[in-house]
Amino acid sequence: MNLRNKAVVVPVGLLLLAATLAIRVERQAIPAWKVLVVDTDGNAIPHVAVNEEWMEFDREVTHGDQQFTDEAGRVVFPARVSSEMLIVRLFEKARPIAHAFACPDGKTGDVEWEPGMTGRGGRLVLHLGDCPFG
Fold first, then answer.
1. pLDDT for position 92
2. Strand duo 24-30 + 74-77: pairing
3. Consecutive sets of 10 residues in the chain, 134 residues long: mean pLDDT of each?
4. Domains, the chain
5. Per-residue three-class SS string for the chain
6. 49 φ, ψ to 5°?
7. Going by C-beta distance under 8 Å and a sequence separation of 6 or more, which residues neighbour residue 38?
8. pTM of structure
């Protein structure tokens, strides 16, 4: 390959590599998770609004959802999908983040989702207090 061909092939190859690494791919960030809402005595609390917040890995964008507990004080949040650049997925070891909170009638409580909680639920205990969440 002569010098003139290299002058074209190398920049084009680098441009193709950069474009490939910038492609956005989706992956499950947060699996479906169950939250049980209870009072300080451990009694389930039905019909309470529970808010979930989760963050996308590379955009630092927070999303939110609200579900209500059923008769047994449980709420199930669906799996969340995150879109990230391929280069981020290959090299960054960012952890997904999810948080659920409730603030009914002068009470407050929260629970965080952590990797490895698949199939397990969180326990959100409501106690007296002002809501510290937006």
1. 65
2. unpaired
3. 70 73 73 92 96 74 89 93 70 73 94 71 91 83
4. 24-128 (2.60.40.1120)
5. CCHHHHHHHHHHHHHHHHHHHCCEEEEEEECCEEEEEECCCCCECCCCEEEEEEECCCCCCEEEEEEECCCCCEEEECCEEEEEEHHHHHHCCCCCEEEEEECCCCEEEEEEECCCCCCCEEEEECEECCCCCC
6. -75, 125
7. 44, 45, 73, 123, 124, 125, 126
8. 0.72
